[in-house]
Specification:
By secondary structure, the chain is α/β, with parallel strands linked by helices. It is built from eight helices and six strands, in the order H-H-E-H-E-H-E-H-H-E-E-H-E-H. The protein is globular and about 45 Å long.
Length: 229
């Protein structure tokens, strides 16, 4: 009897909610659902992100990931990431059957919506902690925020003396969490490849994740490629 009452209450609740939704426009329906169920939706996003991260880690155990690039807050609507990745792969002369290079353009870190922004931030932090990212491109505001948490390497330990000299006008010095100013970014706003693929609409910085396990030559080659005409 108790089970039947619970089922009846559930059905009545569903009918009540559906009755409210039918009176609203599609835009109104979305706003209503978001207002009342956003934390449930955030939880679902977090679960999906966790599953996706687990799949990624498992996949990486089967393949040799030569380089993993994250293009955060990029213009993903126009960016053809597959073509861009193929272009870079051709530039380095191809890769082996059990090797791969990954290019993520789906990560959005947005403070405008605190709930979904928190879910994506959790995912990105997990990616960094799991050493799944090597090179990260970000808009200025976000890059400065993560640089303040010491997420990025000192470029003097990554680039050659010749590269440091060649890109001296593009090097960005930012303070880490200890207040020390280090050269941890390159201003890639005018990098030819980013312009060719319409990757970003505003100023963009690029850096190397401090716990990256990629071959440093791969990191350098990707940065070099970004400036290729």
């Amino acid at each position: 009897m108790d089970d039947r009452k619970l089922k009846d209450r559930a059905r009545n609740k569903i009918r009540e909610e559906w009755g409210k939704l039918k009176l609203l426009s599609w835009k109104g329906r979305f706003a209503y659902v978001w207002d009342y169920y956003k934390w449930l939706m955030v939880a679902i996003i977090a679960i999906i992100a966790g599953i996706n991260l687990g799949i990624t880690i498992y996949h990486n155990l089967q393949m040799d990931t030569l380089l993993s690039v994250y293009m955060v807050n990029c213009n993903s609507y126009y960016l053809d990431s597959e073509t861009m990745l193929a272009d870079y792969t051709e530039y380095i002369g191809g890769i082996g059957e059990k090797e791969e290079i990954t290019l993520d353009t789906s990560t959005i870190l947005n403070d405008d919506d605190a709930s979904t922004g928190y879910a994506y931030q959790m995912k990105f932090t997990a990616v960094i902690s799991a050493k799944l990212a090597d090179v990260v491109l970000m808009d200025v505001e976000k890059f400065e925020e993560y640089a303040g948490w010491s997420y990025f390497s000192d470029l003097r330990e990554v680039l050659t003396d010749e590269e440091l000299e060649k890109w001296s006008d593009l090097i960005v010095w930012l303070e880490d969490e200890e207040g020390e100013s280090i050269p941890c970014a390159l201003d890639l706003t005018n990098a030819a490849k980013l312009g060719e693929y319409e990757a970003y609409l505003d100023t963009v910085y690029g850096g190397v994740v401090v716990n990256s396990e990629a071959d440093i030559e791969m990191v350098r080659s990707f940065l070099e490629w970004l400036f290729e005409e």
